[in-house]
Every structure is written in C-alpha cells, then in structure tokens.
Request: fold
Amino acid sequence: MQTSVASAASAVSAVSISGLGVGFVTASQPVLAAAIQTDFTGIEASEQTILVAGAKVPLYVARPSKSSAPLPIIIVTSEIFGVHEHIADVVRRFAKLGYLAIAPEFFARAGDPNTFGTVAEIMSNIVAKTPDAEVMADIKAAIAWAGAHGGDVKRVGVTGFCWGGRITWLAATLPEVRAGVAWYGRLVGVPTPNSPRNPVDIAAELKAPVLGLYGGADTGIPLDTVEKMRAALTRAAATNAAAKASRIEVYPDTPHAFHADYRESYRAGPATDGWAKCLAWFKQNGVA
Reply:
C-alpha cells in the first residue's frame, strides 16, 4: 500500500465524486492534519451509479489499473458520515492490494450528511431514515454490479466502521458474502421498524464468519455488549459454522473509531494491527 501524509485541506479525492461526500463531513471535526491519503498510482478510481428499486445509488469504486483475472470484491460500509474522503481512501487501499473495492452511498435516499453539523442530527435525519433492508438490497446490487465489471462474486468480503460495522454483521447473513470484518459496530439496540434486529439477534443466521474489532475504552459500545455478542456466537456455534468461526478482538484502553486516521480518536497501534488482521481474515476465508 502506497500512502502519504497530507493536510486535511488537501485530502480530497482526485476524481469527481459529485454524488458522494467530498472532503470530510463537518460533524466529524476536528480533522487531524496528518490524515492518511492513499495515492492513485497503479489504481483506477471512479464514481458509478446503480439503480436499486428505482433509486439511484452512487458507488465509489477503485481497482488495480492492470488486471486480467476476475478480482476479489470488497464492499466498504461507511460511518454515519457517508462516503467522505476517509472511506474513499480505504477503498483505494484495498485497490492497491488487488481488490475491486466499492463503497456504496447508502444514505443517498435520505439526504446528505454534509448538511448537518452534529452527530445527533445525522442520526435522526439520515441514519434513522435508512432501513436495514434497503441497505442489504444496496449491498446485493453493488455485488451484482461488481460481478458484471470484472469482480469475482465467489470472493466477496464486507468491512465497515461504526454504523458500517453493525451493517457488516448483518451483511454476513447474505449468501453472497464470504467473510466480514466489523470495526466497532454496535451489537445490541432497541428494535425499530427500520432496524428490527441487531447483530446479537442474528448470530445463528450468519452465512459468513465475521471478525469483530472493538475498543476496550469505547464509551458508545460497552464491553458488556461485546460479551453478549460473544455469548450469542457461542450459542449459535453448535449448529452454525460461520458463527463458530467468527471471532471478536478487543483492544484495551482503545476508544471508538480508532481506525479513523483523520480523527482524534485514531490510535496507530490498534489501527495498524486491526488492518493486518482484516487482510489476513479475508485471505483466510477465501477473499483474496
């Protein structure tokens, strides 16, 4: 992976992503001046659009510039801030490693997170209005698009951060997905019409093993909820091979969003270790 350190002011995609978040969402401030920026050497990046149930869903896509065989596919699911520069950068990181990587803008129907200045506003105006079923349909459509554009639909991985970490657990119930890596995704919660179930409720339905990466000092995801997920996986393991193969790692004294290199929550040690484990997990489970 070729990366460079760039100022937050210049850390914007070199391609047009007019339907997606350009730069960093206001509510995610402050942005670290040393946010990582992955260059475009050896890869191609673009914005695509797919139709899902009549709605236009933008995709940020990156792949190696030169490839002949069908490429393994990684779907990157965003934080609540949508597909802004950090998520686009993660997509490029995967492309550097030989993947066809895609970040769908799941919030396209609900609105633009950039128009809200606080996390609470984004949660109530964007996230709460984005049904899980709609997100799963978008993931399936993105995988189908990838299969028609040089991707190998037999080698599909999903990874995501915060809101996208929770989505990763849910996506692992889809037959199209071979492995998942969930970064500090919420595991329990009060059911709502748009989010009727949470990861702790679907352990027995997993079709792909999930690696969960969590921070021991995450105030938004208490360790007792992580233990509830571990217990759910253990109960499901007797009859579900994917649940049995799933694993959760907790980094002590580590906050939420420790992989987000543009935020003050970033912790280089756990982020680097988690990234290595993420790549190894996909390779171990045939997504490479």
